[in-house]
Amino acid sequence: MYDKKIAGVCAGFARYFGMDVTLMRVLWLIVALGTGIFFIVYIVAWIAMPRDYEPVATAVVQRA
Length: 64
Description:
- This protein is 55% helix and 0% strand.
- The protein is mainly α.
- The radius of gyration is 17 Å and the shape is elongated.
- The model has no long low-confidence stretch (mean pLDDT 76).
């Protein structure tokens, strides 16, 4: 995950919804502090969210 800070949860949600990562983090923090339940949701998403590995460059072999 390219914009990953801790677990990449907000970056993953931002990519999924097509939003800016910073905006997603601010929204997530506001809702988490307002309700308190989003801290648990964050941990569950951290465990359930699949890893996003960087693409591996493959070499192209030309045969003569």
